[in-house]
Amino acid sequence: MKASVIGATGYGGIELIRLLSNHPDFHLDSIYSSSKDKVPATEEYPHLLNICSLPLMKIDTEKITQEADVVFLAVPSGAAAKLAPQLLANDTKVVDLSGDLRLKNPENYKKWYKKEPATAEMLQQAVYGLTEWNRENIQQATLLSNPGCYPTATLLALAPALQAKVIDPSWIIIDAKSGVSGAGRGLSQMVHFAEMNDNFKIYKVNEHQHIPEIQQQLNLWDEETGPITFSTHLLPISRGIMSTIYAPLKKPMSAQQLQQIYEETYQHDHFVRVRPLGEFPGVKEVAGSNFCDIGIDIDERTNRVTIVAVIDNLMKGAAGQAIQNANLMFGFEETAGLKGFPMYP
Amino acid sequence: MKASVIGATGYGGIELIRLLSNHPDFHLDSIYSSSKDKVPATEEYPHLLNICSLPLMKIDTEKITQEADVVFLAVPSGAAAKLAPQLLANDTKVVDLSGDLRLKNPENYKKWYKKEPATAEMLQQAVYGLTEWNRENIQQATLLSNPGCYPTATLLALAPALQAKVIDPSWIIIDAKSGVSGAGRGLSQMVHFAEMNDNFKIYKVNEHQHIPEIQQQLNLWDEETGPITFSTHLLPISRGIMSTIYAPLKKPMSAQQLQQIYEETYQHDHFVRVRPLGEFPGVKEVAGSNFCDIGIDIDERTNRVTIVAVIDNLMKGAAGQAIQNANLMFGFEETAGLKGFPMYP
Amino acid sequence: MKASVIGATGYGGIELIRLLSNHPDFHLDSIYSSSKDKVPATEEYPHLLNICSLPLMKIDTEKITQEADVVFLAVPSGAAAKLAPQLLANDTKVVDLSGDLRLKNPENYKKWYKKEPATAEMLQQAVYGLTEWNRENIQQATLLSNPGCYPTATLLALAPALQAKVIDPSWIIIDAKSGVSGAGRGLSQMVHFAEMNDNFKIYKVNEHQHIPEIQQQLNLWDEETGPITFSTHLLPISRGIMSTIYAPLKKPMSAQQLQQIYEETYQHDHFVRVRPLGEFPGVKEVAGSNFCDIGIDIDERTNRVTIVAVIDNLMKGAAGQAIQNANLMFGFEETAGLKGFPMYP
Amino acid sequence: MKASVIGATGYGGIELIRLLSNHPDFHLDSIYSSSKDKVPATEEYPHLLNICSLPLMKIDTEKITQEADVVFLAVPSGAAAKLAPQLLANDTKVVDLSGDLRLKNPENYKKWYKKEPATAEMLQQAVYGLTEWNRENIQQATLLSNPGCYPTATLLALAPALQAKVIDPSWIIIDAKSGVSGAGRGLSQMVHFAEMNDNFKIYKVNEHQHIPEIQQQLNLWDEETGPITFSTHLLPISRGIMSTIYAPLKKPMSAQQLQQIYEETYQHDHFVRVRPLGEFPGVKEVAGSNFCDIGIDIDERTNRVTIVAVIDNLMKGAAGQAIQNANLMFGFEETAGLKGFPMYP
């Protein structure tokens, strides 16, 4: 199957190139960028010397759909909504990594993204690609909306507890931390090495666009879920997300019981690893891999749960999950092209 | 005034040496270590060449009390409780940076520290040195218990809101993150550079010994404060703590109103800086200084507050606050020896 | 083919596990450690959960040789010399990643390693595995001595210029820098995160055991090579080596001419990439891959060459090159199991 | 004495603000920027809250010279040459941190800086501020040209050996490494955190503008000095420079003898610390201080010296040395305002 990447110069794009170049079933056929035309990819990314000879091409949706079986859209939010309809024309399947198709309610999109939402048709057609929780729909999808990085870690962490009704969803606090690649490749004072090194910052307090994405899914799982609090911080590392989550128990239970719920829930999911009770994952332990690792605890002093999930934001939080979803959409093995171990140390 | 440092080879000790060596009123007279005797400090810390010619001496409490007007105890918890009574014998004042004298209830100490508590007499005599909130007692103290690094940031952040009764203290979630120097100078796999670099880890989940210290003070301020949830993470940086705090409002109020409470509360406190509304501090913005910077927000969607405080864990979280307290104990200017700016970048 | 790793808990060992677990032709069958017995690998390395179920076993050379077709020896120098003869007994092939079999002259080993050298028989049998320059011998080898990390980068960088007799080898200055994983997983003050972070250190000045290894090979290539100067520094990164090399030209030539020599020399070597003239590689551009990237310049002001080579010290500098060599020893494709791209960013 | 800083938003500027704000003899009176006017400094640098209430002002040289006794010029090369003559008009003394006044030969400046040189008058008037080697002239200076960061470390390291004629200056290789703040506060892909983190890069190979500055001074000390080779690399740290230097001995001598030369040379220089023989400095051991630490070795195998010098590039490599020079120009104690210890860890 021929695959194309649009938005190939961003970090999501370059990670897609890395994964697709060694994928057993997809063949990376062409790469596109809004800002380049016929420029060797190595000019933008010297590390691709001899291993990716594709040129960066100007986006031409008609040409793309004639040639590609699947297109990965790794463009900024706002741009994807415009490209998706054009790309769907010729039986090409589309995996969109932007935020444009995640919120079912266009008013919500307007409020949080401060941009024009996608059409109702697109929003309806788009299948939310939180793989472990939506496999059947994903297998049928032609337009896939890949979840955000923070929502992926957070939702995988909360799903078992929320669905088993063990937590009281009236308040849920999510304190999330991300590596700097999550902020994209664009330049700004905040991501200047000398200022981010040895630093740790909170940003977009109570205004992050992933809030409504998480809220939407939690309410689908448990409509009694109250408004969540979700905070995002920037870590002085290149990749990795940790989501630390706090919620009250509905009624007292032991950590062992909760652990069992988590282990059973994810026992058949290769990419979600529940850590043994008492052990919590560090972000480096999934770096470069598609794993989401989860650790849980119950504090008897407070009757609250602590749930910790880590992912590599460019993998399970973006390109990796996008490939995982594309594998399902094309009937390939779910783990195809995603068997790389975490790179440790 | 002659000052001595016991436990000079640890990170708290070395920071005390840095500060006392340039202090206008204290003179660093001698430094002690449990593991060295008559060893030049430069052998342990080459950066002290030509600027600290003191030898590391074996701890001899009788000699110390005969010579020193003030002793800074920067030894591990457990050791301080034993040294403090001996040091107090000869009119020497003691500033203890360990956790041994912070918990007024010895049972609490046993439970969280898993060591033998200090004597009731010591616990009663010890004055808790959260400077901004206990100045009068500190000025009279001969035995000062310097607060923990996490409690300092957390308590300074919560005090105005809690005391003004604007938050409902039935649940308070504190998600704290610290630089690696907070874990001490001892060796372990967790602090191996290759494993902590690019990493971010949660540790001692629901078991950190600073939980009862924070709880104790919050209950003094508002006895209705319920059991807090307090989590600690390790950041891949050398110094710095951020405490991100969540709590429900008692009744709706605007962020502007809360901001005003914070600004008024700390208007005369040099070392606590309330950031302008909408701005949040990064840990690097206080590195090397004794400042605690605070930013606040109220989320109208959830009716909850977000309070963020940052400190340098070796300064306001340890040696800096210890000097600040010693200044008060001896009637010096509170900021003496602590005027260094944050080192940025 | 069944493969075993001895010394699996070190960084070389864990990287071998990563590579062998996804190798198309080798099957990782068992892993051994001097310090563990029947301990799940996940106990030492939690990131292996669900993907490596092998237990760490006590070293039993007889059992190993009965079961394994190839053994990768990733133990410290000194230990390998003793294990190798026992392992070679039963037709098992051995790839030794230590320094024990690299120096042909045992006196040299004694002087630089300060340990007892391997037997003359072992030293004679061992084939030096600088793959690109010794393929024919490697294909016949049963005992392979894998080059050191610094020598790999340095020798690949110098080979074309030295062999083409364009540099005057009376003096060659090699200024090398390595990530901290190169110092191993053992604990020491130097690799404590808080002390190595934001730091950069020179170590083993004029005493590094890789000096005689580099010298030996250079003299084989050009017997007129004078004594080299080789320095090693520690970088505050997890992986990566840069070797910056300076030497005088024999007679004036243009950078273009030298560039052509380099490009022609390595045109058929997949893992050595000569960068376009004017471009120099950063260490991150090979991280996680088996590439050695090289950039060159000639300074007309000084008539000297500057040659820069970068590798991932755990890959081309250890486990990656070991696999590359094993591939040749067993007649597999040279790049088998080594097709992973650099992980960027 | 009233001091002004022009170019206050750059890293050199902000470090000057840090130092001057706690200087016993200078009073920081005003700060200027080419891009701001009447903007509070805290808007650019939030860490200055409550401790620097000065506004950033538009550069007005007439106003500045009427008010300031000394002006620190921390603007980019090219701009300083134009401002200096205007500032010198009213008896104001000028300390220029740019490269504009360092090269006595304007043709040299044109060639390496690719900009228009300063006037011959300015070049003649400017005193080169390598403090330890030019005190008498500095004391008389009204226009001081502060040395570059790399030249400071390199020249202090080479001076004793070169002047004692122990090295053969026909070839000297200088391999230098700098923290990212040395590249300035401007944005570029190279200083994007996600790309510089875990990276190490060589840049401006054989083209760095500090080459002629170092060469010029070395030739003043020993006119037989041949063309030097000088390379620069970027370290993934915020501050710090290491210069590793190699040169042949004129005739064999012991490391002890060379050590003695170094110790005697710098015995009265507070800010140059010669490490004990066998010990080499790491960059972190001078961070935040004005020290230049030096370690030396002689390799009997090669008859070459290795000299290592480290500085904090923003301190002894820029703002610190500028203050040190200004202290001399005004007859203050040379160490005034510069007594801060290295911040370790």
TrEMBL record, chains A, B, C, D:
Alphabetized GO MF terms: N-acetyl-gamma-glutamyl-phosphate reductase activity
Catalytic residues as annotated in Swiss-Prot or TrEMBL: C149
PROSITE patterns in the cross-refs: ARGC
Segments crossing the lipid bilayer: none
Gene3D superfamilies cross-referenced by the UniProt entry: Dihydrodipicolinate Reductase, domain 2, NAD(P)-binding Rossmann-like Domain
Residues covered by the Semialdehyde dehydrogenase NAD-binding domain: 2-141
Protein name (Swiss-Prot/TrEMBL): N-acetyl-gamma-glutamyl-phosphate reductase
Organism: Bacillus kandeliae
Gene assigned in the entry: argC
